[in-house]
Design goal:
The chain is α/β, with parallel strands linked by helices. It contains 14 helices and 22 strands. It has a seven-stranded mixed β-sheet, sandwiched between helices. Strands 9-8-7-10-11-21 form a six-stranded mixed β-sheet, with helices on both faces. A three-stranded antiparallel β-sheet has the order 5-6-22, with no helix packed on it. Helix 2 (about 65-85) runs antiparallel to helix 5 (about 160-170), helix 2 (about 65-85) crosses helix 6 and helix 3 (about 85-95) packs antiparallel against helix 6. The longest helix is centred in the first third of the chain and has 21 residues, at about 100-120. About 55% of the residues are buried.
């Protein structure tokens, strides 16, 4: 741990924390004040080869480790995550910007994910298929797919790596993970947790570098048998095609643009209080963030006014400060993107009710922004905003809003609010997305599948589906000799 309370930045290869062999580094910047938190080492090709060799060598060892012993390591790792919650959360807030309470919650959920997969590791069940003769039977076996290349983004530095690492380890796979270079300290802390939990050296390896160069080296490598990526749609499509060239399994959790449908029969006050927390969580930098708001005519004015009031009351400041409701954006790219979305919406006739500007000139802070009467052809209604900007528009009829909600190529998450159970059932059936929240935003749970359809990716993390993503299915036909 550094003097400022930030995690010491290192690679983790074959059980050793170390610097890169060629000395290349990059600065990690605090988005709240733009200070340099530390220097992140980059892995050279030699370092990558050593990480891959370790994962390849240790795969059969970890694969053959009894499930109950794998579960013990995962449970111990979950326990250590809880014990180190404050220090890991502080590192996360410093490097990513989210408020400290959100960071603590993320660490806690990450521990829960680890513990969930500890249990699932002992439930990698196959099945028996009755034989066609008296002296035969068929068996379906579930086996670990092999060494995994995991690639994770900056917005959830603990949660996203832990979903991939814990599921892979539970299945019996070894891992080479490239976490985000913008938020590396949290994943370094996770690697320390697994080492201290008793994970054998070489089963988990952590590297950093130029993202395109590292992924282009890891994915085709013969040691890697599975790729798991969370990130943008364009990069996901590129990496998916790269994996396809080598016939490697891939889970792609990509971007979204989640519609939120509020019907006249919903309780406006209850909906706004629920949704505003979800919208401005992590400054809106969440792949399943509610991002396109469709409010039925009779509740439209009330909804916009109340949402605006609550947005204006938010305390936007350094996430380490007491009473912070929202921290900075993660990087200056997001500032430019928010300004562009707001300017475009204004040009299309949207009414900016509150916000729309950068806060100050130090740190990457942006005002919580609410825009009313946003037309469908504005960029923000068609491109994922990934920030604290809320476009609201109105609708008249059920079929009309379903068509508008489903019009984009995204299909990650959708939300709807209604007191009509028949309408709720119809929404669940008709909304085209991998996850649907009806009267709830709580769609990301350790025990439930998480993933999208259409351009939002394929495959699931979480739940039993998350374990199956790291398993091969083998059929054995056994005849008595």
């Amino acid at each position: 741990m550094s003097a400022n309370g930030y995690e010491k930045l290192e690679l983790f290869i074959d059980g050793e924390f170390r610097q890169g062999s060629e000395g290349k580094t990059e600065d990690v910047v605090n988005p709240a004040d733009e200070s340099v938190l530390g220097e992140l080492p980059h892995a050279s090709k030699t370092d990558l080869d050593e990480a891959l060799a370790a994962a390849d060598r240790m795969f059969p060892v970890w694969r053959d480790t009894p499930a109950v012993q794998r579960a013990q390591v995962l449970n111990r790792a979950g326990q250590l995550m809880r014990e180190r919650m404050d220090s890991i959360a502080r590192t996360m807030t410093m490097e990513q910007g989210k408020v400290l309470n959100e960071a603590r919650l993320e660490v806690g959920v990450s521990a829960e994910i680890c513990e969930w997969y500890a249990g699932e590791s002992m439930r990698a069940y196959g099945r028996i298929i009755p034989g066609r003769t008296a002296n035969s039977r068929g068996m379906v076996l579930k086996e670990p797919v092999g060494p995994v290349a995991a690639l994770t983004p900056w917005n959830f530095p603990a949660y996203t790596p832990m979903r991939k690492i814990s599921a892979a380890l539970a299945a019996g796979c070894s891992v080479v993970i490239k976490a985000s270079e913008e938020t590396p300290g949290t994943c370094v802390a996770i690697a320390r947790v697994f080492q201290d939990a008793g994970l054998p050296d070489g089963v988990l390896n952590l590297v950093f570098g130029v993202p395109a160069e590292v992924s282009e080296y890891l994915i085709p490598h013969p040691a890697i048998r599975k790729i798991s990526f969370t990130g943008s749609v364009p990069v996901g499509k590129l990496l998916s095609s790269m994996a396809g060239e080598h016939m490697k399994r891939a889970t792609m959790e990509l971007g979204g643009h989640s519609p939120v449908i509020v019907f006249d029969d919903a309780d406006t006050e209850k909906v706004v209080k629920m949704v505003i927390g979800g919208k401005f969580r992590n400054a809106g930098q969440v792949c399943i963030s509610p991002t396109r708001f469709y409010v039925q005519e009779n509740k439209y004015g009330e909804f916009v006014n109340r949402f605006t009031e609550m947005a204006e009351a938010m305390n936007v400041t350094n996430g380490l400060e007491e009473g912070a409701d929202m921290g900075p954006l993660a990087n200056p790219r997001r500032l430019d993107a928010m300004s562009g979305f707001v300017a475009d919406a204004r040009e299309h006739g949207a009414d900016v009710r509150t916000g729309g500007e950068r806060i100050g000139n130090q740190g990457f802070f942006f005002q919580p922004t609410v825009m009313a009467d946003v037309p469908e052809d504005a960029r923000i209604m068609n491109e994922e905003p990934f920030g604290p900007v809320v476009p609201v528009t109105t609708f008249k009829e059920f079929d009309e809003v379903i068509e508008r909600a489903n019009k984009l190529e995204f299909g990650l998450a959708s939300y709807a609010f209604t007191s009509d159970d028949n309408k709720a059932t119809a929404l669940a059936n008709k909304l085209e997305s991998g996850m649907v929240g009806v009267n709830s935003l709580a769609i990301s749970l350790p025990e439930a599948p998480f993933g999208g359809i259409k351009d939002s990716g394929h495959g699931s993390e979480g739940g039993i589906e998350g374990l199956e993503a790291y398993q091969n299915t083998k059929f054995v036909q056994h005849w008595a000799a």
